[in-house]
């Protein structure tokens, strides 16, 4: 069992940067494959990025590749999403999730990121 809490969202201008944090309580996050997802108003939730073994492997959606970086900190039991060169279309609620047995089972409540043009 793990509980996830995101933070770091807010309002940012296009071209700016934001770093999201996902802090876990319970089991060590490096045990899980961790993912970031986002959901914009009126749209379905979409995959953004994932990390396994805290850096052993990472995966990104094409829409964020080269702009976003997912990373993990074992000591802080935290996963980060560094978002650079933000665009208005990146506006969404961003949630982190922990996968267990091949599916994302544990979810945070989400944090709003709004990118103004």
Q: Total strand count, please?
A: 11
Question: What's the assembly state of these chains?
Answer: single chain
Straight-line distance between termini: 40 Å
What low-confidence regions span 5 or more consecutive residues with pLDDT below 50? none
Order of helices and strands: EEEEEEEEEEE
Q: What is the structural class?
A: mainly beta
Number of helices: 0
Strand fraction band?
over 45%
In helices, the fraction of residues equals: under 10%
Cα radius of gyration in angstroms: 13 Å
Largest sheet properties: 7 strands, mixed
The mean pLDDT is 93
Question: Layout of helices and strands, plus pairs?
Answer:
Layout: E1 2-7, E2 10-13, E3 18-26, E4 33-39, E5 46-52, E6 57-60, E7 68-73, E8 78-83, E9 92-100, E10 103-107, E11 111-116
Parallel strand pairs: 2-11
Antiparallel strand pairs: 1-3, 3-8, 4-5, 4-9, 5-6, 7-8, 9-10, 9-11
Descriptive labels:
117 residues; seven-stranded mixed sheet; globular
Characterise the protein shown here.
The protein has strands spanning 2-7, 10-13, 18-26, 33-39, 46-52, 57-60, 68-73, 78-83, 92-100, 103-107, 111-116. Helices cover 0% and strands 59% of the residues. The model has no long low-confidence stretch (mean pLDDT 93). 32% of the residues are buried. The protein has 117 residues and is an all-beta fold.
